[in-house]
Every structure is written in C-alpha cells, then in structure tokens.
Amino acid sequence: MTDNSAQPQHCTEATLVDGHALVFPTLRVLQADGSLYEQAQLPQIDKASALKIYHSCVFTRVLDERMLAAQRQGRISFYMTCTGEEAAVLGAAAALDDADMIMAQYREHAALHYRGFTLEQFMNQMFSNINDLGKGRQMPIHYGSKALHYMTISSPLGTQIPQAAGYAYGQKMRGEDNVTICFFGEGAASEGDFHAGLNMAAVHQAPVIFFCRNNGYAISTPAEEQYAGDGIAPRGVGYGIKTIRVDGNDMLAVLAATQLARQVALEQQCPVLIEAMSYRLGAHSSSDDPSGYRSKEEEQKWREHDPVLRYKLWLQAQGWWSESDDEALYQQYKQEVLAAVKVAEVLPMPELSTLVTDVYDEVPKHLSEQLEQVKTQVQQYPEYYRATAGKEHL
Amino acid sequence: MAKMNLLQAINEALDIAMGNDDTVVVFGEDVGHFGGVFRATAKLQDKFGKDRCFNTPLTEQGIIGFANGMAAQGMRPVAEIQFADYIFPAFDQIVNETAKFRYRSGNEFDVGGLTIRTPYGGGIAGGHYHSQSPEAYFTQTPGLKVVVPRNPEQAKGLLLASIRDNNPVIFFEPKRLYRASVGEVPEGDYEIPLSAAEVVKTGSDITLLGWGAQMELIEAAAKRAENDGISCEIIDLRTLMPWDVDTVAQSVINTGRLLISHEAPLSGGFAGEIAATIQEQCFLYLEAPIARVCGLDTPYPLSLEKEHMANEHKIFEAIKTCVNF
Ligand SMILES: Cc1ncc(C[n+]2csc(CCOP(=O)(O)OP(=O)(O)O)c2C)c(N)n1
C-alpha cells in the first residue's frame, strides 16, 4: 500500500503553497561533447548493448528521412518522425526486459526496432499490404506486435495510459517479473485519461512506468499553452507516484532513469513517472508545417542538442565506434530501406474478406451478408474496385 | 457573390458571428495562432484577440465542459473538436450535461449558446480514427441539434444559424469537402434556417435523401439514373435533429419511393429512424421498400475503404432495384 505516513505540519496563518515550490532536478549524464558530467554515474551498459542502441538510432533517422520523402512522393499516405527524441525513446527501451509491455503513443518506433521489428514489418504496415500484422486497417505508423510485447497503436490520445495501469496490475496479479511502460506526450497528459490512469495506478499500486516525452509542442500548441505548472513531473508527486525528470536528449541519463524506474516498479510493485525534457525537431506529422507556428532559429537551437550526435561522440570516446563505421551503417540502412519500399509497395492489399473479420471473434451473419453484397458490387464494377477485382473469392 | 471553399466559408461565418456578437468565443486544440489543423479559424486570433480565439490544452472533455460552463453563464462558445473521432472523450459532457442542462433544471439554466464544430467523415485514407460519422449517437440524445452542411454556401448560412440558435448544436463538417467543395457564397451575413430540409432537385420516380458529403455521391448516382430514364428527387436533410419530416414525407407521397444514404454504418444509423417514420406516414403511397445505402457494420477500414463506403455505384444499383421492385 502507499505510504501515507508523512506527519502533518500545521500552521496558524493561511499559507498558500505555490506550484513551483517543488523544484524538480533534471538528471543528466552526458555532455554535448560526449564526455560525462563531473560525478555523473554511468548506467549499466556494455559495448554490445551500447552499439545496439546506436544501430536503432541510425535506423530510425534513416527510416524517418526516407519515409517522409516517400510520403512526399505520394507512395505512402502519412508519416510521423521520432527525430530529436531518439534518446528519450531508446534510452527507455534499452532499460527494459524484452517481455515488458510497451504501450506507445505513435512516435516511439525506435523502441520497436530495438525490440526486433523487422524492416519488412515496418514497410508492410506503412503500405498496408497483405502482410501487415494489422491487416491494413490503420494509417501508417500504427504498428503493433504481440510477439515483441508492443501493443498496437491507437490514434485517440491518452487512452493507453489507464490501460497500462490495468495491464501492469494484471502482471502483478499473475506474479510476473515484468512491468509495463506507457509513452505519451505532454499534450496527451492533458487528457482525462492521464489523470484517471495515474490515479488508478497509484491507488492500486501497479508496476507501470509512465513515460512522458515532453517535446515542447502538441501539433502547434507550445507547452506554455498546454499547462500552467512546472511540467508533468509534479503531477506524479501529486498523485503519490515516485517521479524523476531527465534530460530527454541524453541517452545515458534516460537509460539510468529508466533502469532505476524499472527496478523500483518491479521491486516495490508500484508506478513510477518519468518526464523526459526534449524537443520535437520535425513537423508534427507529414500533414503539418511548423513554419506557421515556430521559428527556424528555435529549431536550430535544438539541433545543437541532437541526442544522436551526443551519444555517438560518447561511443567514439569509448573507442567503440568510428566515422567510417558510421558512414557504412548509414549507407547500409539507406539501401535496405529503399529496397524494402520497392518490395512492400507492390504487394497486394489485404484480402477482401478481411473487411468483415476481427470485428467480433467470429463473423456474424449480417456481416457475411454484407460481404456478399460487396463481392457482387466488385464484380459489377471491376474498374472502380481495381485493387480487389478478380479476387472476390477470397 | 464570391467563390470560396468550404473552409473559407466556415471561417467567414465565424468572423461574422464574432464581429457581431462579443459573446461569441472560439476555441479548441490548435485553434488559436495556427488557425486549427485545417485552418478553419485562421486569422481570427489576430482580429479578435487571444481572449476570444485560443488554443486549449489537449482535452476534449475539458473543452466541452468549459464550453458548457461558459454557455451556462450566457456566452456563445464555439468549441472545435479536431476530428469527430475524438468527440468521444467529451461524450459524457455532451450527452449527460450539454443535452440535459435545460431539462433537468426546469429551464433555470441552459447551455443554448453552445455550438460544437467538428470535421467528420471518410474518403480521405484516414482509417478508423480519422473517418467516422458519429452523428447517430447524438441524434439519439434529446436536447441536441445536429446539423451537417453539404457545400460552402450551406456551411456559412447553417453555421451562422447554429451559433445564434438558443439550443446546443453539433455542427458536423464534411472534411473530405473542406477544400474540394468550391462554390458561390453570398456576401455578408445570412442564415439558413435549422430543421428545414432542402429539395435540391425535383423528380417523380424516387426520392433520394442524404446529408453532408453524401449529397455529392447521391447527386452523381442520380445523374446516371436520369440517363437511364429514372427521374430522381433529391433532398438534403441539413438538420438531422429535429428533422423536417414534412418535406421528406411530401416528397415520398409524390414519388412513391425513398432511398436514404449515409456514410455511417447501417445498423443503428439515422437512416433507420427516417425509414421507420416515413413508413408510418406514407405507408399507402410506397411502391417499394425504403432502401438504405450505408457504410458496412464494421469499423472504418483503411485499405478497403472504397469497398466499405456507401459510394456512387452502390447508390446507383440500389436506385435501379428500388424502381424495378
Ligand atoms: C483524443 C485525441 N484528440 C486529438 C487528437 C489529434 N492529435 C493527434 S496528435 C496531437 C498532438 C499530441 O501532442 P503530444 O501528446 O504532446 O505528443 P507529440 O505529438 O508532441 O509527440 C493531436 C491533438 C487525437 N489523436 N486524439
């Protein structure tokens, strides 16, 4: 149960406590030049995992750049990047056990790559073709994989936050050695579901890590129009949840914070909130144009805090990475991504019958009848239904 | 008259409403400086200031609860929900609060000044979270008016009437047509009365009824039917609740047949309600069962969107079946 044993303090003069009375320290480990801050402690990390993290950084950068270009060429309908937030996402992912459930918002595909989602799987989802695990039903970037413990993305914001509390509570009841991590933006933290989810987790002591990527913007709305207090971290304290704030552009700091959060969540079977301070370097999505609401200078300032570059400098300082390794890895991923686009984009779309499956566990009569009507239509108008025509038997 | 698209018409209506009445306040996610993700509120903050046009935190529940409070106080809030798919976090505030404010207080309090604007509908490769047509949930809630315009001219006149109506109105904007629908729009201030359907075209063999973006598809199907010698009467319902039974019934008495088409799933859709009412009113005049051409009873898909939609071809085939019954 929660420890509510703090002794009450009394006063005889009305005293207002200001929200900012609680000053949140921000954990940082890595300096811009790749060296550690004085007295900073290195999280648990070995060469193999350090390089695995970096591979996912580069993969994500390449994927984001190429797929944004593919969207502009009209090859996919929509895209969202993780650019600028790779450390927040990967530092967290690398601190987890592979079987810890990840409930993401939509900008966390770097974590999915780290878990082992293949390039083909990414492509099949984005091209919503016949091999997409989600059967082509959702917009690009709404990935999910049961095998990799990555809950399929849902577009409505914040809905995963109370779900994560419940999922983690289930893990606790079953005596599992795992936690759940739930990612969301500072914008989504305004939704009612955020408050409901944190309170449920706190009262019922669920082993869940709430991970807020505070990237400064929710589409065009800057953080100062999103909340009046000192960010999201103090809310965790308000709900009785252990909370830590971290530099979200510092891979090692995020790793350290999440390792601690996981240890506490697991050992004490309780929720932990992490707020990672970062910046969304790209547009909100391929449908957005940030020049309408923020300056190039502001973006440039944040480019100087590039989390991937900072981390690379640290790897180089360890003697684990070189510029030529870097060049080669970028080249390799660029070629692989281009090749994978070409394969995925010509695969057929999901079978016509998937129109009515998975609505219920079995297809009810009224839906099989509706499918038959659609098949008749397709036969009547094969030109209009070009992608499905000729496959009505499926 | 000026030519403009549906978004510009909405922007103009908001501009006029705010200019004429200080109590009109416009807000929602990204609505302020940026002018909304579709730019329906562009320039309003520059013109009317941050107090009357602003960004809200990202909480639909908060937006509508806040709007209810403002409206109860006598203001005319125009709250934007960024996509109709995201109206559900505000469902409790709308269905239990907005709709029942007047009734439960014996008219001591009301939120009649409230208008909720939201883009709805599919055909934009948006999958199930950017394509829904949730109007039927709200037509089943007594106390709410539900309005859906089909083009820029209609949008401007209906939105002005909605904002000034003394009842809460949910105004569904067909986002597929935001930029695609361009037309002549009368200058200045004008209103199109709520709860009046419009006979868009007269005809004698069958009445085709719809609203919003569906009207385009109905009109296209009707053109093809006319080529086959079938004379179609076309009606835009415009306000779904309270709806104009008389205009529809009169038309069905003349044509003897009715086809209703909407984007939302068939089961529990508003077409069912219309069919039941018209069957009661026009039973002896009907020469064929009332036809419904609607979305499938599944969530809105991405890759099989064409197959799912109540499109022009499905409407055309249903017209022929109805006429040849
Ligand atoms: C309930 C709901 N309302 C609105 C939206 C539309 N929308 C999608 S992303 C977004 C902004 C999210 O901002 P934030 O949570 O800060 O995450 P970020 O995109 O910055 O990573 C909005 C308003 C949505 N998806 N769901």
From TrEMBL, chain A:
InterPro entries: Alpha-ketoacid_DH_E1_comp (IPR050771), DH_E1 (IPR001017), THDP-binding (IPR029061). One of its GO terms (biological process) is branched-chain amino acid catabolic process. Pfam families: E1_dh. Keywords: Oxidoreductase, Thiamine pyrophosphate. Its EC number is 1.2.4.4. Its cofactor is thiamine diphosphate. It is an enzyme of class 1 (oxidoreductase). It comes from the Bacteria. It catalyses: N(6)-[(R)-lipoyl]-L-lysyl-[protein] + 3-methyl-2-oxobutanoate + H(+) = N(6)-[(R)-S(8)-2-methylpropanoyldihydrolipoyl]-L-lysyl-[protein] + CO2. Residues 57-351 form the Dehydrogenase E1 component domain. GO terms for molecular function: branched-chain 2-oxo acid dehydrogenase activity. Coiled coil: none annotated. The branched-chain alpha-keto dehydrogenase complex catalyzes the overall conversion of alpha-keto acids to acyl-CoA and CO(2). It contains multiple copies of three enzymatic components: branched-chain alpha-keto acid decarboxylase (E1), lipoamide acyltransferase (E2) and lipoamide dehydrogenase (E3). PANTHER family: 2-OXOISOVALERATE DEHYDROGENASE SUBUNIT ALPHA, MITOCHONDRIAL (PTHR43380:SF1). Belongs to the BCKDHA family. This is 2-oxoisovalerate dehydrogenase subunit alpha.
From TrEMBL, chain B:
Residues 4-180 form the Transketolase-like pyrimidine-binding domain. Pfam families: Transket_pyr, Transketolase_C. Its EC number is 1.2.4.4. SMART domains: Transket_pyr (SM00861). Keywords: Oxidoreductase, Thiamine pyrophosphate. SUPFAM superfamilies: Thiamin diphosphate-binding fold (THDP-binding), TK C-terminal domain-like. One of its GO terms (biological process) is response to nutrient. GO terms for molecular function: branched-chain 2-oxo acid dehydrogenase activity. Coiled coil: none annotated. InterPro entries: THDP-binding, Transketo_C/PFOR_II, Transketolase-like_Pyr-bd, Transketolase_C. Its cofactor is thiamine diphosphate. The keyword Oxidoreductase applies. The keyword Oxidoreductase applies. It is an enzyme of class 1 (oxidoreductase). The branched-chain alpha-keto dehydrogenase complex catalyzes the overall conversion of alpha-keto acids to acyl-CoA and CO(2). It contains multiple copies of three enzymatic components: branched-chain alpha-keto acid decarboxylase (E1), lipoamide acyltransferase (E2) and lipoamide dehydrogenase (E3). This is 2-oxoisovalerate dehydrogenase subunit beta. It comes from Ferrimonas lipolytica.
